[in-house]
Specification:
The structure holds 2 protein chains of 2 kinds. Chain A is mostly helical. Chain A contains 8 helices and no strands. Classes of the chains: A mainly alpha, B alpha/beta. The structure holds adenosine-5'-diphosphate and magnesium ion.
Chain lengths: 193, 244
């Protein structure tokens, strides 16, 4: 499930409406992200919930239905487990709800950003630029690695452990090739020795 | 005119020395660096592109590369890395090719792109390209800046016949425009196709032999762990009118 969500997010750039891809829309999405946090903390719960539903509907309308389902399920699981914890430990239920709301309102925006931002839109922010490139590269390779594990019949816990280990080694080894590639284009990303 | 000069260049990875006192001079034309896997070919090119720390001196177009700003160095030296997939940074082939130009604020030489990448590929995601397409796109994304020095790390990797032909056209184009082209590989057959002017054989970080391409003997190749020019190679080359 998680992997097909990742694939959906990675491939969305190629069919997204042009307006969402433009560099200036990134600032808009960024403002949306900040306001999500503020909104879900300060507004009445019912309004905050309506806001979350509105955001999720946007994702659905855009065609990102796998991600939408994924967000809803993970939020429900998060909320249920935190509520259970709060009940057992006599914690503050209102806080749990607020926390869930923050997560529920920022996740759709993060998905929107991840699925509609081309690296070139971030060029003026070197750190974000590099992060988005590494993110993009490593995710794609993990999807390949996963196919190989599946083909070899690796399953269960062992499968997930291997995927996690591969992700870590890949991000470390790939970031040095990526730094080479950026430098070869005249983009200096870390101080030279 | 000497365009690239290495003077006693040493490269270490940790305690291990990978290049051990390399000295060499290159002029405009085509030069191949041959050597078995792990001989240090990639490291040598990365040193010229100042992507690894090295001891000694490397002079490009009369300037020590140690003193150059990255952007100025990149305008002189075009380094095309070995595995294309490890270097893609953009979401479409067009953006990938434009990336260097945007950074260097250059108009770019689109002739190079035409030789390597067909128009249909332009809106594709670089990661979905086949090996050969990826290799060509990654080379185009660097050489579009029209540097006088081209470093091609294993340019034939992944390529089929049409890919090989496009690299040969590229190299011919570069030669006719006075570029200094340094290409690494471990197959003497591919090297022959490039009609090089000179060769260097690298073995365990030292130059075990070098000279005019015509003077390269099978003996020397075999000693360095490279397949010599066999019958098959000879017949393919002869049919292309290339003298071995
Ligand atoms: N980043 C690195 N760290 C440690 N060792 C390396 C690194 N890169 C290459 N090497 C080692 O340096 C030697 C030369 O590598 P390389 O220049 O890639 O060889 P070639 O391109 O001729 O196959 C090899 O033994 C390789 O394992
Ligand atoms: Mg190599």
């Amino acid at each position: 499930m998680l992997l097909s969500v990742l694939r959906e997010v990675l491939d969305y750039k190629y069919k997204a409406p042009q307006i969402l891809l433009s560099p200036w829309s990134f600032s808009f999405k960024f403002v949306l992200l900040i306001s999500s946090v503020v909104f879900s903390i300060t507004q009445q719960i019912i309004i905050a919930i309506a806001y979350v539903i509105a955001l999720l509907s946007i994702l659905l309308v855009l065609g990102l239905w796998r991600s939408t389902i994924y967000i809803i399920t993970s939020i429900l699981i998060l909320h249920a487990s935190m509520t259970l914890g709060a009940l057992l430990l006599h914690g503050d239920l209102a806080r749990v709800t607020r926390f869930t709301l923050v997560a529920a309102s920022t996740l759709p925006v993060l998905v929107l950003i991840a699925s509609t931002t081309k690296p070139s839109a971030l060029k003026r922010m070197p750190i974000l630029y590099l992060l988005s490139i590494v993110f993009n590269n490593v995710l794609r390779e993990i999807l390949d690695v996963v196919t190989v594990y599946r083909a070899r019949g690796v399953e269960g816990l062992n499968y997930w452990l291997r995927v996690i280990i591969a992700s870590i080694t890949l991000s470390i080894s790939r970031s040095s090739s990526l730094i080479d590639s950026l430098r070869s284009r005249g983009i200096e990303v870390e101080k030279e020795h | 005119m000497i365009t690239v000069e290495l003077i006693n260049v040493w490269v270490y990875y940790g305690d291990k020395s990978v290049l051990k006192g390399i000295s060499a001079k290159f002029t405009p034309g085509v030069h191949v660096i041959l050597g078995r896997n792990g001989a240090g070919k990639t490291t040598l090119l990365r040193a010229i592109a100042r992507l690894v720390e090295f001891r000694g001196e490397i002079i490009v177009m009369g300037k020590s590369i140690k003193g150059l700003k990255r952007r100025d160095l990149v305008k002189l030296v075009g380094y095309c890395w070995q595995n294309p997939y490890y270097g893609f940074i953009e979401a479409t082939v067009r953006d990938e090719i434009r990336a260097t130009l945007d950074t260097l604020r250059l108009p770019g030489n689109w002739e190079v792109v035409k030789l390597l990448v067909s128009e249909e590929l332009m809106e594709r995601d670089p990661f979905t390209l086949s090996g050969g397409e990826a290799k060509r796109v990654s080379m185009a994304s660097i050489l579009i800046a029209d540097q006088p020095i081209w470093l091609l790390d294993d340019p034939f990797m992944f390529l089929d016949k049409s890919g090989v032909d496009s690299i040969l056209r590229l190299v011919e184009y570069g030669r006719s425009r006075g570029k200094t082209i340094i290409a690494t590989m471990h197959e003497v057959f591919y090297a022959s196709l490039l009609k090089p002017d000179t060769y260097i054989i690298l073995d365990q970080g030292v130059i075990s032999s070098s000279g005019e391409w015509q003077s390269l003997s099978d003996d020397v190749l075999e000693k360095a762990g490279i397949l010599p020019r066999g019958e098959i190679c000879a017949s393919i080359c002869t049919s292309r009118g290339i003298r071995l």
